[in-house]
Structure formats: structure tokens, C-alpha cells
């Protein structure tokens, strides 16, 4: 493409579009003309970006297209309809579409935590490298730190702290996935190592049932949310390597917007697990009752994903924002 010739040929259209955008009142014919010029300019911008990128010209046309799009489509505010659509379609569909990533992530991570636990349980020298024998006894004895941890603070503040920490970890998995997923693997490793240490130490003290009775009520839903975030982060990293039939820029934009939405949805899921951890785990309920609550919360979430999410995915929902809210796009040159 000869950029100078292209600019000379189409500059009058851009100037005309700019003039129409500056007017407050347009006739019907002028409004139709504005829409036509907006579509043409969006195509021109796409052609320039793909064939002869020029930063100054691209910047000018990008601003012009953005202003025209705002005028043509108008502005809108989030409504309860958007919230309902997010909870009943966008979020569960996004989680469902990522299942081929987060389910294997969950299985492998759980196996790694169990392996760590077995290794620590069966190797006293590893236990001694973690802490002194007296400190290990303080951790694992009845009424020790593993048990009192969940009741060491008021339930409300403890639940809020747990929720904040877990939501940050999930958001980091989603956002850092763009770095080829490597930070996500490190975050997962740290989480599974911590879990494995608890399993191993409590098992060596003959109190694994107590440990699981404390972890399972909130841990099932909490870890599932972390696995979903990690799997989605890994998927985002893989999109950078293999965007499929989409351009890498388009693929990252679509998957990135879906990941941001999932961060919000997972924060809500982690709020529930945090409430369970703050109010149910340290409660005086029998162990079977606490575990039943945790299992019920987990099953409800899985049903939400595999029933509601699957239904939304079948009708084309991807978790991305609505098409009307995306940036203007036009075919690129071959």
C-alpha cells in the first residue's frame, strides 16, 4: 500500500466525518452519512494497521473511530440486566469453556499435594527440616495451631481477610497467565506445597482426619476457585502461543476480557468459601455436618457450571463482553 496515495484519497472522508461529529444537531441524511463514514473509516484504520502502520495516522484515526462509535451507538450504563446476564450466562459459560484446562489442573495439583503429604509423612528428616520437634508438636497436637488457626480471630474479620487473600491469588493467576502461564505454575506450586505440608505433618501425628475435617468444609470450594483461575490463566498463556484461527491480538483481547469477568465471578465464589471458613469451619458443628456443608457448596457450584454454564455456552456465550460493547472491528487486508 502506498500510504501517501491512500491518505490523499481518503482524507476528505475523514475530515467530513470529523466535521459531522462536531455538530450537535444532524439531519436524517447527515446521520446516515455519519454512519457510512464511520464504517469506511473503521475499514481504513484496519487496512493501515495491517499493511502500512503509521503511529501518528493510526492514532488520529483511532480517536476518530472511537468518537464516531460513541456517537453512533450512544452510551449506556450498567443495569440489573447486565448483572443478571453475567451471573446466569457470561460467568458460568466462561468457567464451563475453560473446563478442559482447570479440571486437569485440579487433578494434577491435588495429586502433587498428596505426594508432598506422603513424602513429608514418611520421611522424618523432611519433617525436621520444616521445624523443630517442639514446634511440630505445637502445630499438630490437639488444640494446636492447626486447629486454633480458624478461631484465632473474630469470624467476620477472619472471613474478610481470607476472602481478600484468596481473591487476590485468583486474580493474580488470571492476570499473570499472559506471561506464558509460568507465574501461575509457581502460585499453584506454593499452594499445593502448603497443603501438602499440613497433610504430611498431621498424618505423621496420626491426626489426618482432624486436619481434613477442618480443611474440607471450605477447602473444596476454595481450591476449586483457585484451580479455575489457574486453569484459565494457563489457557490465556497458551493463547499467546497458539491463538488458533484468530489473530494473536484478537485472541488475547477476547480471552483477556473473559478472564477479567471470571476474576469478578470467582471473587463471589471465594466470598462464599470465605464465609464458610470464617463461620462454619471453626463452629461447634459435628465434623460430618461441616463437611456436608462444604460438599453441598461444591456440588452447587459444579451444577451451576455444568448445567447453567453448559446451556449458556451452547447458545454461543463465551464470557466476553457483549458484541455491541466491543471496539469497532473491520476485515483486515489479506
Q: Which residues form runs of ≥5 with pLDDT under 50?
A: 323-334
Shape: elongated
Mean pLDDT: 86
Helical proportion, percent range? over 70%
Structure explained in plain terms:
This protein is an all-alpha fold and 334 residues long. The chain is 79% helix and 0% strand. The chain has 13 helices and no strands. The longest helix has 34 residues, at 208-241. The protein is elongated. The two termini are 12 Å apart.
Q: How would you summarize the topology of this molecule?
A:
Layout: H1 3-22, H2 28-51, H3 55-73, H4 80-97, H5 99-122, H6 124-130, H7 133-140, H8 145-148, H9 155-176, H10 182-204, H11 208-241, H12 248-280, H13 287-314
Helix pairs in contact: 1-2, 1-3, 2-3, 4-12, 4-13, 5-6, 5-10, 5-11, 9-10, 9-11, 9-12, 10-11, 11-12, 11-13, 12-13
Amino acid at each position: 500500500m502506498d500510504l501517501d496515495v491512500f491518505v490523499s484519497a481518503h482524507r476528505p472522508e475523514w475530515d467530513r466525518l470529523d466535521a459531522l461529529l462536531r455538530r450537535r444537531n444532524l439531519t436524517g441524511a447527515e446521520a446516515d452519512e455519519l454512519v457510512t463514514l464511520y464504517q469506511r473509516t473503521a475499514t481504513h484504520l484496519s487496512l493501515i494497521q495491517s499493511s502500512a502502520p503509521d503511529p501518528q495516522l493510526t492514532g488520529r484515526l483511532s480517536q476518530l473511530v472511537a468518537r464516531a462509535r460513541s456517537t453512533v451507538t450512544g452510551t449506556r450504563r450498567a443495569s440489573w440486566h447486565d448483572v443478571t446476564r453475567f451471573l446466569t450466562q457470561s460467568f458460568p459459560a466462561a468457567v464451563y469453556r475453560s473446563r478442559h484446562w482447570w479440571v486437569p489442573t485440579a487433578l494434577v495439583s491435588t495429586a502433587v499435594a498428596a505426594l508432598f503429604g506422603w513424602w513429608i509423612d514418611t520421611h522424618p528428616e523432611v519433617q525436621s527440616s520444616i521445624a523443630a520437634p517442639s514446634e511440630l508438636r505445637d502445630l499438630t497436637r490437639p488444640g494446636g495451631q492447626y486447629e486454633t488457626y480458624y478461631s484465632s480471630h473474630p469470624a467476620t474479620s477472619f472471613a474478610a481477610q481470607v476472602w481478600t487473600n484468596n481473591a487476590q491469588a485468583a486474580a493474580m493467576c488470571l492476570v499473570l497467565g499472559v506471561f506464558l502461564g509460568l507465574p501461575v505454575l509457581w502460585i499453584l506450586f506454593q499452594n499445593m506445597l502448603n497443603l501438602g505440608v499440613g497433610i504430611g505433618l498431621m498424618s505423621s501425628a496420626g491426626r489426618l482426619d482432624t486436619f481434613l475435617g477442618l480443611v474440607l468444609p471450605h477447602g473444596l470450594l476454595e481450591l476449586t476457585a483457585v484451580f479455575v483461575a489457574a486453569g484459565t490463566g494457563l489457557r490465556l498463556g497458551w493463547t499467546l502461543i497458539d491463538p488458533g484461527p484468530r489473530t494473536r491480538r484478537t485472541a488475547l483481547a477476547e480471552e483477556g476480557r473473559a478472564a477479567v469477568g471470571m476474576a469478578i465471578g470467582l471473587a463471589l465464589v471465594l466470598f462464599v468459601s470465605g464465609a464458610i471458613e470464617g463461620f462454619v469451619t471453626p463452629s461447634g458443628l459435628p465434623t460430618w455436618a461441616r463437611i456436608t456443608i462444604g460438599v453441598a457448596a461444591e456440588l452447587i457450584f459444579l451444577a451451576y457450571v455444568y448445567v447453567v454454564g453448559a446451556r449458556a455456552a451452547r447458545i454461543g456465550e463465551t464470557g466476553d463482553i457483549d458484541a455491541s460493547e466491543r471496539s469497532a472491528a473491520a476485515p483486515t487486508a489479506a
